[in-house]
């Protein structure tokens, strides 16, 4: 409705009478005063209702009736409130609305999510309503800013956005984690990554990026796994692995800075330590080889506080190992050159050391662990043909991919950032499930 003002914009209307379309998030007060906590999606805001003022304006009978109606408003009733914007340093927001009129738009009875504590399963069952709460709003604001900053960053860096297909006939990551669907009688899979298609696009357009949903039938029930999540992927022709790491570092700093610049109110609601976020923007990220990480982990495995299990060279890092390493360095850390065996088929073998690949995972500090996976891509036709055989991949499904190595192949690299992992880290949240509007996990596809 045209004449409604968003709560986020009320500071531009001090002294004016305005109308706000909102929901009653909470209510308190006694005697002649009622305080309404209003929310309209842009922010939360306090409206003050003063009985004598309504009586003065509408007369004894109508004024009293209005006050009584307001006094009995229930949680999540939708309203259009008219009032005068006042500066008020006592209110957290800095402003208040001095209510002169209120119209109920939609009633709300027995709203299930009350201001008291609720268990997380209950909240997830009511995710369609839980999204309205202050903390969830703050997280979605951060999510929105990261997406905004992502498009801005890659456009500034001369990339074009390529939308890669969701329905794919081949796999690019762990084939045991594919969701298979029946595509008119033949099996196809939901995308685990847009990477292979992005490589084709890089050969066509140079620097490209992709932002879309990906799906992994992860059987793991952890605080960092979703079965449906969103990935931001970058790929560029003639981009060395070193250059890719530089770009990843610049990109991650850029989104953190965006959140620091534009999401202060959300970071306050989330009680995020912003001095740490600022540190990640200011200080260089750490770069260490996988082999060195294994040595560090072995060296500290008997420390008193150590919670991870013994690890051997060749083993993949588990979440506790990643947590330790990310805390150890205190800044985002690239773990580079993993063993070939534990990484994806398309990664370039390290020159002179084919048991390792030219790749890196970026581990977020404070125990968050991997938020990016990236690598230089194998471009040697014969090596790649052999790998596809060795991995028992259906060769016919990769002939188009092999064409990229046949027709003007060039060195190229790229990476993928898991959006919800990044949000969980930047918001300082404990669990990935709150970083996406409607989480899908092994035991949850509703609502
Ligand atoms: O490390 P991954 O598997 O890398 C790729 O898919 C590459 N093809 C990307 C590329 O080079 N273009 O996944 C990338 C990121 C991980 O670092 C992690 O942040 C996130 O995706 N991720 C998940 N996030 C939530 N739930 C899951 N189950 C995830 N699996 C991976
Ligand atoms: Mg990975």
Rounded Rg: 27 Å
- Uncertain ranges: none
CATH hierarchy, class of the largest domain: Alpha Beta
Q: Helix share of residues?
A: 25-40%
Query: Do you know the CATH topology of the largest domain?
Result: BirA Bifunctional Protein, domain 2
CATH superfamily of the largest domain: Bira Bifunctional Protein, Domain 2
The tally of strands reads: 18
Catalytic activity: tRNA(Asn) + L-asparagine + ATP = L-asparaginyl-tRNA(Asn) + AMP + diphosphate + H(+)
Domain Aminoacyl-transfer RNA synthetases class-II family profile: 142-447
Subcellular location: Cytoplasm
Pfam families: tRNA-synt_2, tRNA_anti-codon
In a few lines, what is going on in this structure?
With 447 residues, this protein is α+β, with helices and mostly antiparallel strands.
Structure description:
Helices cover 34% and strands 26% of the residues. The chain is an alpha+beta fold and 447 residues long. It has two domains: 7-106, Nucleic acid-binding proteins (OB fold (Dihydrolipoamide Acetyltransferase, E2P), Beta Barrel), CATH 2.40.50; 127-435, BirA Bifunctional Protein, domain 2 (2-Layer Sandwich). Strands 6-10-11-18-17-16-13-12 form an eight-stranded mixed sheet. Strand 16 and strand 17 form a beta hairpin. Helix 4 (134-156) crosses helix 6 (241-262) and helix 4 (134-156) crosses helix 13 (419-427). It is elongated and about 90 Å long. The model has no long low-confidence stretch (mean pLDDT 96). Residues 172-173, 193, 195, 216, 218, 225-226, 229, 231, 233, 370-374, 414-416, 418, 420-421 line the site of 4-amino-1,4-dioxobutan-2-aminium adenosine-5'-monophosphate. Magnesium ion is lined by residues 361, 370, 373.
């Amino acid at each position: 409705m045209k004449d409604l003002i968003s709560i986020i914009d009320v500071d531009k209307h001090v002294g004016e009478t305005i109308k706000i379309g909102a929901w009653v998030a909470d209510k308190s007060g006694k005697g002649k005063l009622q305080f309404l906590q209003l929310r309209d999606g842009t922010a939360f805001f306090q409206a003050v209702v003063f009985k004598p003022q309504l009586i003065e304006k509408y007369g004894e009978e109508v004024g009293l009736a209005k006050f009584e109606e307001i006094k009995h408003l229930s949680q999540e009733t939708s309203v259009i409130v008219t009032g005068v914007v006042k500066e008020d340093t006592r209110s957290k927001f800095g402003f208040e609305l001095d209510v002169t009129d209120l119209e109920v738009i939609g009633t709300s009875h027995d709203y299930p999510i009350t201001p008291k504590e609720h268990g997380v399963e209950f909240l997830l069952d009511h995710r369609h309503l839980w999204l309205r709460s202050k903390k969830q709003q703050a997280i979605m604001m951060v999510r929105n800013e990261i997406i905004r900053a992502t498009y801005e960053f890659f456009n500034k860096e001369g990339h074009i956005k390529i939308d890669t297909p969701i329905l794919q006939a081949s796999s690019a990551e762990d084939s045991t984690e594919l969701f298979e669907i029946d595509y008119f009688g033949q099996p196809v899979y939901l995308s685990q990554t847009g990477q292979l298609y992005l490589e084709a696009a890089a050969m066509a357009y140079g620097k490209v990026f992709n932002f879309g949903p990906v799906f992994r039938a992860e059987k793991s029930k952890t605080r960092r796994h979703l079965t449906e999540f969103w990935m931001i992927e970058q790929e560029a022709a003639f981009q060395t692995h070193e250059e890719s790491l530089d770009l990843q570092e610049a990109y991650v700093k850029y989104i953190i800075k965006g959140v620091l610049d534009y999401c202060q109110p959300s970071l306050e609601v989330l009680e995020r330590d912003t001095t740490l976020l600022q540190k990640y923007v200011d200080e260089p990220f750490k770069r260490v080889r996988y082999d060195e990480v294994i040595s560090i982990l072995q060296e500290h495995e008997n420390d008193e506080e150590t919670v991870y299990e013994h690890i051997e060279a060749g083993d993949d890092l588990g979440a506790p190992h990643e947590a330790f390493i990310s805390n150890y360095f205190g800044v985002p850390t690239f773990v580079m050159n993993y063993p070939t065996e534990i990484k994806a088929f398309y990664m370039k073998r390290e020159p002179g050391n084919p048991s390792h690949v030219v790749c890196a995972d970026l581990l977020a500090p404070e125990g968050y662990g991997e938020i990016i996976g990236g690598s230089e891509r194998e471009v040697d036709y014969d090596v790649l043909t052999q790998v596809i055989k060795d991995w028992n991949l259906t060769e016919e499904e990769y002939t188009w991919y092999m064409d990229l190595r046949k027709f003007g192949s060039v060195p190229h690299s790229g990476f993928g950032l898991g959006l919800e992992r990044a949000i969980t880290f930047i918001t300082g949240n404990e669990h990935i499930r709150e970083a996406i509007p409607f989480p899908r996990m092994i035991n949850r596809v509703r609502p």
